[in-house]
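Notebook entry, structure prediction.
Reason for the run: the old model in the group folder had no record of what sequence produced it. Starting over properly, with the input documented here first.
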Amino acid sequence: MTAPAMSVHDKCMAVKTITIDLEAYEALARRKREGESFSQVIKSHFGRSRTGRGLKQILQQAAVSEATVDRIEAVVRSRRRSPVKAPRL
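New structure, fully documented this time:
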C-alpha cells in the first residue's frame, strides 16, 4: 500500500512568478528578516489593512522594559484623575 500524495502548497495559496530588477530585489532583501519570506515582506509593506491581530503580532515582537510599562500605567492613572474632559461637539 502506498502513502497518499502530499501537496507542498496550501490548497488556498496561489503562486505567481514575478520579474523585478536588481534594485527592487535589493530593496526587498534589505527589508527581509531572517526566516521571513519575500511574500511576507511585500505584504507587510503593501498588504492588508491593519487589524488587531496585526497589532498583537507587532507588540509580541516589541521589547518594552518593565520601567516603561510602569511609566505608561502611571500616565494613564493620572489622566483618569484629571478633571479636564474633551468638549462634546
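Summary: The CA atoms of residues 74 and 80 lie 10 Å apart.
The old model has been moved to the deprecated folder.
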